[in-house]
Amino acid sequence: MINNSFWKTRAENYNKTSWVKDDHLLNAYLSLIPKNNIYRNILEVGIGTGAVANKVVDMIGPMIGLDKSKEMMSKIDHDGITKVVGDAHDLPFDDNHFDLIYMRNVIHYLENPAIVFAEILRCLKNESIYLFSQVIPFSDEISDEYDELIGRDIHYPNHGEIKDFFSDYIILDEVEYVLEAQSIMNWLNNTCQDEQKKQKIINQHRNTSNTYKNMVNYKEENDDILVDIKHLFILSHK
Ligand SMILES: C[S@@+](CC[C@H](N)C(=O)[O-])C[C@H]1O[C@@H](n2cnc3c(N)ncnc32)[C@H](O)[C@@H]1O
What we know:
The chain has a single domain (about 5-135, about 150-180, about 235), classed as Vaccinia Virus protein VP39 (Rossmann fold), CATH 3.40.50.150. Strand 4, helix 5 and strand 5 form a beta-alpha-beta unit. By secondary structure, it is an alpha/beta fold. The protein has ten helices and eight strands. Strands 1, 2, 3, 4, 5, 6, 7 and 8 form an eight-stranded mixed beta sheet that branches. The protein has helices at about 5-15, 25-30, 55-60, 70-75, 115-125, 145-150, 160-165, 185-190, 195-205, 210-215, and strands at about 40-45, 65, 80-85, 100-105, 125-135, 170-185, 220, 225-235. Helices cover about 35% and strands about 25% of the residues. Bound molecules: S-adenosylmethionine. The site of S-adenosylmethionine has 19 residues, from loops.
């Protein structure tokens, strides 16, 4: 169950989860932003601890970050970021305001992603950029097994489902980026306090299907499990 106290606890260790500040991943994602545009008004939806935003400010300039968790945003320490507490389903911004909006790894926490996509579209200037990123199951076929393994009672939209949310956008580019050999223990130690639940998730990983294991290059090493993790980037405009 994901509520405000989930984010309050998670804020403390969030930046220690290996993918969050992975430089290769961040650089690959942000390299999709077109170079020749002028970005005066920039928004990150679900900014969290500012792991992406710190780089965006240094690369492009000042921006606004919105998140519903003030605890996550309390970890942001950058003069160029204006923090706004708010809900992505009801963005507190004017129509046609932003030159660039981006959102990373938020969609699986949203009650209604279609409303959020419509809100982002409303707040973008015509032909301005929306850059999306999301961790996804390795293939749409293993979607249910993936949700089960994460153990959070939430659904992680897969590649096909995500494409449907873009029906009112023009897609310019699409990249599947694989982070290799990611530690399940690192992820669990920084996201889960409940030892019993941790053990259950480890056992579930050990017992996954061979199809799943082959797809993600499953390896057991020094009391840890290593798997490849896929992120989807979509560059689009209004
Ligand atoms: C996994 S974190 C991602 C943070 C950041 N985008 C990053 O990539 O490091 C998800 C963030 O989405 C925020 N969030 C979840 N639902 C939201 C909503 N309805 N409105 C605004 N923020 C939301 C959470 O509070 C959390 O900070």
